[in-house]
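In this supplementary section we document a worked example of the pipeline. Step one takes a protein sequence of length 369 as its only input; no multiple sequence alignment statistics are reported here. Step two produces a three-dimensional model, which step three serialises into structure tokens for compact storage. The input and output of this example are shown verbatim.
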Amino acid sequence: MYFGLSEEQKSLEESISKYLEANASLEAIKAVADGEKEKAKAIHQGLVDLGISGLMVPEQYGGLELDTLFAAVVAGALGAGTAPSPFTGAYVMAPLALSLAGSDTQKDNWLPKIAGGDAVIGMGLSEYIGAREDAGITYSDGKISGRALFVIDGKDADAYILGNQSGQLFLIDADSSGIDVTDLTTVDKTRDSIELILKEVNAELLPGSEKDPSAINKVIDTGRLMLSADTVGASQVMLDKSVAYSLERKQFGRAIGSFQAVKHMCAEMTAELEPCHSMVWHAAHCQDNIEEEAREMACHLKAHVAEVGQQVSKTSIEVHGGMGFTDEMGLHYWFKRIGLNRQLLGSPELVREEVAKLQGFDQSLVKKN
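The serialised model returned by step three reads:
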């Protein structure tokens, strides 16, 4: 039996990669990081034209209705290309949340718009995963108030889906009164994240989230998988760049790649990263086919890939030496992307604690050992 990507998935990955190579060069990414919004919009529109907005939308609403593995393949390609485009929140988590928990009216209103690339929905679920003391949202009589942090793909969004500590999901039109949006400046300039201050804002409960509390977990797990795939894609580029640089950079009349220390650094990066590709594929397969393993695999993947990504990005900079810190090389764009992915939707420590509880470990023994 063959375990790997299908020809269709490889073709989709190649299409995304070729588009980004042609339209999102390092110079283009630098321009986006410096604030050129039109450049980011143009890159995003090109990706929408390739179909990324309709991947997870059911066919009856105009989408492609592909599985999670297809979405993971796209996420990996976007990470490799440091694509300045919404994806994880707007085109994976949002349509999944609406499909699982939305009413027929909510689906009819929003899913066709998402599929056509006419609407972006930001996802704010930090208050469910691990709210800070000064954050959290409350819902009463159709109104929502509070503070939501790190809303993924929320900048310039048409609507937001927020989760409270109980796991209920709420849909808010971005044009509603009572919303104060703060742009959260993160280390990663290729993607946007915002904070919302809400004061008696009109909100719609996604009814399925009240009937089935597991819906929000499914959305979060799929989001974690996308972030992990993005990290693997970005890490692979940093590894490839390290190998290429080691073969062209010379010291003492020899390519530094011939030095044993550099060989070991590249070999260790390869050994750590290579299994992560198949781990992403298996976790994505579980989301759609092996329900009893899906949550555990998503948590294990998020924690493990975050650690591997951190190590690969750090070692890649070391292989490049002083050049690794320069804007000329641009390694910091992948480095920072990996760093942000590590924290979004739960740090490795938080996710490990979550999966330990899920597997029934005695927390006192875990802490003791």
